Amino acid sequence: MKYELTDDQASVLAGLDQLLAGVDTDPPIEPVVFEYAAALDQTLAESGFLDIAREEGFSPLDAALIVERLARLPQVVEAAASAIVAPALGVPAGTRPVALLSGPLTKAARYLPMAQVLLADRGDHALAIKVEPDNVETVETLFAYPYGRLKRVEGLEQTRIDDVATLRRRWRIALAAEAAGCMASAIDTILEHVKTRQAFGQPLGAFQAIQHRLAMAAETAESTKYLAFRAAWSDSESDAAIAAGFAQTRTAQLAYDLHQFAGAMSLTLEFPLHLWTYRLRALAGELGGGSQQARAAALATWGDAA
Amino acid sequence: MSSSIETFRQEARAWLAANVPTEPPPEDGPASREFTLAWQRRQAQGGWAGINWPKELGGRGLSVMEQIVWFEEYARAGAPTPLNATFVGLNHAGPTLYACGTEAQKAEHLPKILGGETIWCQGFSEPGSGSDLGSLKTRGEVQGDQIVINGQKTWSSFADIADVQELLIRTDPTARTSQALSWVICPMDTPGITVRPIRTMAGVLKYCEVFYDDVRIPLENCVGGIGNGWATAMSTLSFERGTAALALLIGVTLHVEKLLADCPADRPQMRARLARLRAEGASIRAMNYRVALDSENSVPDATGSMVRLAFAEFSQRVSAAAIDLYGLDAPETIGAHGWAHDYLDAFSETIAGGAAEIQRNIIGERVLGLPKGPK
Question: Is B344 on the interface with A (CB under 8 A)?
Fold first, then answer.
């Protein structure tokens, strides 16, 4: 894997940035339960960016680059499952938003209230379930994403997918790419704060105790990003599990440090850090959390001996 | 344990079993005030408020050991969280008045705090002065027998429903911090005070900004003497860092027991994580008991910062583990009193009452005797 963008990748990201330049990206403040960015969703769907992995000459890595960039936005919009997961499982282009689920079918899934298709990990196989809007119950949580659960599981219009490993692998890649974007935005929010906020006669960012921990936070975000991109490039089980697991296990320390640096301001809805705290916590809990990814990485690397 | 302590425990347990409210406490607004004061009044009427406060001030006059036993039984009974609108009065203002106030100030305010008649809030932090508390700018000008206050405070929990504020102001703009500040009792219905609640990321309106526009309070409301506010405020914060969170800590350790009980046998990594939290909780509890017993009848020393820091980070780890145990959408997680709320609310534990970084500075400089770093 080369760590330089190709000309095609650079022009795709430039095109995406141009598209997003026309979008209102002021962070929402109220209400606590965030609304889905339906207008942005439509703009993205029409632009074709989310179908890039389906195009000749492009790959999941190009999709991961786009997902990471979109995850930096304060708006809540489903992109990762559409761009990275669905193309590998035979979901037709345009059948989105896509929700992902592991565990019981009645468990809550991100984006289910607006999803057209639910991809469910059923252990030894996967299901692609057509989502009927009147069969979805909204679940209110404090974790920023819209969640919903199926009201009934009988009589679902569903297609069996034998390759459940691909669902898990691509989900892990998607999760890591999203986490990388969230981490980058969270750090940007705090960098601005510690450069301008004064305490004890100097900017907060001048204190080594803060510099060192911010440097570690930056290392976490950069590592997450490149692990996600590597996993998207190799599309391998072990890389995917390592990328997702790294992101999930590092989230707690990163969130803790960034909140400390902004103090009580960071606890309010008037300071945007909470957006990333909510999202990173939700991502940290998916697919069984970091310890499950560590187990999956060990199995993928060393097999049953692990 | 002596038989008298055991008798005390059984009495406390029986009273709590019969009196703990069954309805969940409202988290903010007037309903929170009504609920919290009613619960405090019920405890006072039952003889269970101020276990180790002096009898002449409305307390029971018992030892710290009885106070600890009360905290243990309180948590065991699932009584309303002590981190409510009465927290500042019972754990900050009350002990500070007891340690530094005049007899008239004690007589006026302490029985009302214990008896569930008044709610106090804190006015220390400002928009430009948090951890750097000594840089606060809210001005208090002594004019005859009054102090005229102008400025702004923030992060004042429950200021929107409080009767009184423990307020730290700058009364001498030319002096060093140690002689420049004053700790005053500020009635919240004084003309010129405006309160703006702030919604937190946990969804509640708990913190407030407070604005002061020519607010006039009697000079006799000063506690500890004009210009001696820094020392008085350090006493206030020492109480928070010493014993104030003990009931909370015991409650969190009991939550860990519940999490362990709910953890399925086929999740060995989660069981190991919870077991580590159980050990961590036990160690902090032991440290906190030691600090509480050592500081009987005195202001807790800097070792209280070790308890404060350890408890704050412990409570965050417990909330995070609970969400991972139950899942993001579980009934235990979502809702007004779920673990998601507690997880987000717990971020404040390492910021309020002296951020974790300040606690570490205190431990380094005052407990370990390290040279002071640049400030």
Answer: yes
Contacts of B342 (CB under 8 A, 6+ apart): B319, B322
Q: Which residue has the tokens 């004084």?
A: B190
Portion 246-275 of A in contact with B at CB < 8 A: 252, 255-256, 259-260, 263-264, 266-270, 274
Determine the Cα–Cα distance for residues A203 and A195; give it in Å rounded to an integer: 6
Q: Is the distance from CB of A84 to CB of A177 less than 8 angstroms? A: yes
Q: Is A199 close to B269, i.e. CB distance below 8 A?
A: no
CA distances from A77 to A21, A34, A36 (A): 16, 11, 6
Q: B121-228, what's its fold? A: Butyryl-CoA Dehydrogenase, subunit A; domain 2 (2.40.110)
Given B27, B240, B280, B349, the catalytic residue: B240
Distance from CA of B334 to the nearest CA of A (A): 6
Determine contact, residues B129/B163, Cβ cutoff 8 Å.
no
Query: What's the CATH class of domain B3-118?
Result: mainly alpha
pLDDT in tens, A72-126: 999 899 999 999 999 999 999 999 999 999 989 999 999 999 999 999 999 999 9
**Which residue is closest to A282 within chain B, CA to CA?**
B328
> In angstroms, rounded to a whole number, what is the distance separating the alpha carbons of residues B350 and B356?
5
Residue spans of alpha helices (H) in chain B: 3-19, 29-45, 64-76, 87-88, 94-100, 103-114, 177-180, 229-242, 246-262, 268-294, 304-326, 339-345, 356-362
> Cβ of B135 and A200 within 8 Å?
yes
Which residues of B are less than 8 Å from A291 in CB distance? Answer: 269-270
What is the rounded CA–CA span in Å between residue A213 and residue A210? 5
> Which residues partner with A171 through β-bridges?
none
User: What ipTM, to 2 d.p.?
Assistant: 0.89
How far does Cα B76 stand from its chain's mean position?
20
Nearest CA in chain B to A103: B327
Which superfamily is assigned to A165-305 in CATH?
Butyryl-CoA Dehydrogenase, subunit A, domain 3 (1.20.140.10)
Is it true that B3-118 and B245-367 share their CATH fold? no
pLDDT in tens, chain B (375 residues): 678 999 999 999 999 999 999 988 888 899 999 999 999 999 999 999 989 888 887 889 898 899 999 999 999 999 998 888 999 999 889 989 988 999 999 999 999 999 999 999 999 999 888 788 889 999 999 999 999 999 999 999 999 999 999 999 999 999 998 899 999 999 999 999 999 999 888 888 888 999 999 999 999 999 999 999 999 888 776 665 556 678 899 999 999 999 999 999 999 989 999 999 999 999 999 999 988 888 776 666 788 889 999 999 999 999 999 999 998 888 899 877 789 999 999 999 899 878 999 899 999 999 999 998 766
Listed by start position, the domains of chain B span: 3-118, 121-228, 245-367
> How many beta-carbon contacts under 8 Å exist across A and B?
99
Second-level CATH architecture of B245-367: Up-down Bundle (1.20)
Cross-chain residue pair A139–B334, CB shorter than 8 Å: yes
Please give, rounded to a whole number of angstroms, the shortest distance from the CA of A203 to a CA of chain B: 11
**Quick check: B198 and A270 CB within 8 A?**
yes
User: Does any CB of chain B come closer than 8 Å to the CB of residue A213?
Assistant: no
B332 touches chain A (CB under 8 A): no
Distance from CA of B137 to the nearest CA of A (A): 13
As given in the structure block, the two tokens for residue B236 are 């206030």
Sketch the domain layout of chain A as residue ranges.
165-305
Catalytic residue flag (residue B240)? yes
Determine whether the interchain pair B355/A143 forms a contact, defined as Cβ–Cβ distance below 8 Å.
Answer: no
